[in-house]
């Protein structure tokens, strides 16, 4: 097991890439073989997964196996139950290359310099830090959190730990959530687009409006909270010399790249009738390599990208355990009458759509409190809610599915983002949850409000 763990970067792409290829070939026999290979891969990944994901994966495996037997499906059908979530795993496998091209272009360092420039008070620092984190998360996703948190820890060395803990856990996690609300490279967004069948471009203006509105509210909220605290400069800290014109050009390049990326994804998806997740997966690699070449940073991108991709892929055990076990559970559940029972409360509320939206919002929140990853929740909800798309506007359901899921990134005590922040800042994760709960409720409520207005 330990020997094979070092070569997961060869094992995972082989299986997930073959599945993507088969999406074009449409071979049932090849899909069966891929599903069969997923079983030893699940066992191998389980050995290297964290305790939380082992528990979560174990629950889905046991429940999925039980449902499989209850449905009376033939044993030969088992491999076909393991492949439904492989497009998501293929998507996660190529995602580090986008992170690497941003780092190769040194956008992360230059934009992070914005936080190192002294400001008069912590209210202004909050706004600047939030904006910086927001920009970086759009391309770097989870990798942006430790980067910005380390810079802020250096900026706030002379501040009481209680204050710095509160500041960092608010600004980084909230900006992280808001940046991903409309990102095509966010799993929750991609899953919702494919589940509802609604075009990403239909969701985009509403999600972007919600993101910007909540960002402004958060800035006003915390500028007032931290504004009275004077920022005393540290004489020993190096202050970078920022050229405003050059910084604006760096940000403009990032926004232009994101616009081109979105245009390419939508064009490819519409032109060939591809699922949104598959479109993003196919575009990321050629886009990242082309961007690196145009920036004349191809050599550093190639070295950095390979090393980053290798490390990230070798560390994908948590997601592999979650997604493959989730596939077994959801596919087996669909073959039983239990799905209709779960759908019952949602169908009963079909005449009062606002209740459905509120139920979705608080289901995410409740599940995150007991350690269930929002990806697992959204996968189950997607199956449960599918009959409602003819009764309730799927755009409304999709908006709250995305915003409710991402709101948990600020409060999920056992989630990756909160745990990472707790470790980086050496604070209690439950304090982070309590501190960000008002924002999580606000974020979910804004999603519910937009969904209600679109009914």
Automatic annotation (TrEMBL):
The keyword Chloroplast does not apply. Keywords: Membrane, Transmembrane, Transmembrane helix. The keyword Transmembrane helix applies. The chain crosses the membrane at residues 6-25, 32-49, 55-73, 85-105, 125-147, 167-185, 197-221, 247-266, 272-294, 315-333, 395-416, 437-454. This is Na+/H+ antiporter NhaD. It comes from Salisediminibacterium halotolerans.
């Amino acid at each position: 097991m330990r020997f094979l763990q070092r070569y997961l970067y060869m094992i995972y792409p082989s299986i997930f890439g073959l599945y993507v290829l088969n999406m074009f070939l449409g071979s049932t026999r090849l899909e069966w073989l891929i599903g069969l290979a997923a079983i030893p891969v699940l066992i191998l990944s389980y050995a290297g997964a964290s305790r939380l994901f082992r528990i979560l994966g174990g629950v889905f495996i046991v429940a999925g196996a039980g449902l499989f037997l209850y449905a009376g499906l033939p044993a030969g059908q088992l491999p076909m139950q393991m492949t439904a979530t492989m497009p998501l795993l293929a998507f996660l496998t190529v995602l580090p290359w986008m992170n690497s091209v941003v780092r190769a272009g040194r956008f992360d360092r230059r934009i992070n310099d914005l936080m190192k420039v002294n400001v008069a008070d912590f209210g202004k620092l909050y706004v600047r830090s939030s904006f910086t984190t927001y920009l970086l998360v759009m391309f770097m996703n989870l990798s942006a959190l430790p980067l910005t948190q380390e810079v802020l820890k250096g900026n706030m060395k002379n501040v009481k730990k209680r204050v710095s803990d509160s500041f960092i856990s608010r600004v980084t996690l909230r900006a992280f959530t808001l940046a991903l609300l409309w990102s095509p490279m966010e799993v929750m967004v991609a899953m919702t687009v494919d589940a509802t069948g609604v075009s990403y471009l239909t969701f985009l203006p509403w999600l972007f409006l919600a993101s910007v509105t909540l960002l402004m509210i958060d800035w006003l909220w915390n500028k007032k909270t931290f504004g009275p605290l004077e920022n005393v400069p540290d004489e020993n800290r190096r202050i970078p010399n920022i050229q405003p014109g050059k910084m604006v050009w760096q940000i403009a390049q990032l926004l232009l790249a994101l616009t081109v990326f979105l245009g390419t994804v939508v064009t490819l998806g519409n032109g060939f009738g591809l699922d949104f997740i598959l479109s993003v997966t196919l575009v990321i690699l050629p886009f990242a390599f082309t961007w690196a070449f145009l920036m004349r940073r191809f050599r550093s991108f190639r070295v950095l990208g390979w090393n980053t991709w290798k490390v990230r892929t070798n560390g994908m055990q948590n997601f592999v355990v979650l997604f493959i076990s989730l596939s077994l559970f959801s596919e087996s559940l669909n073959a039983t009458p239990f799905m209709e029972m779960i759908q019952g409360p949602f169908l009963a509320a079909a005449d009062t759509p606002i209740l459905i939206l509120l139920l979705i919002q608080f289901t995410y929140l409740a599940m995150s409190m007991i350690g269930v990853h929002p990806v697992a929740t959204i996968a189950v909800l997607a199956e449960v809610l599918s009959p409602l798309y003819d009764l309730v506007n799927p755009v409304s359901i999709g908006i709250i599915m995305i915003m409710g899921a991402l709101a948990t990134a600020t409060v999920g005590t056992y989630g990756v983002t909160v745990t990472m922040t707790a470790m980086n800042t050496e604070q209690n994760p439950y304090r982070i949850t309590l501190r960000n709960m008002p924002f999580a409720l606000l974020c979910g409520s804004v999603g519910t409000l937009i969904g209600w207005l679109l009914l």
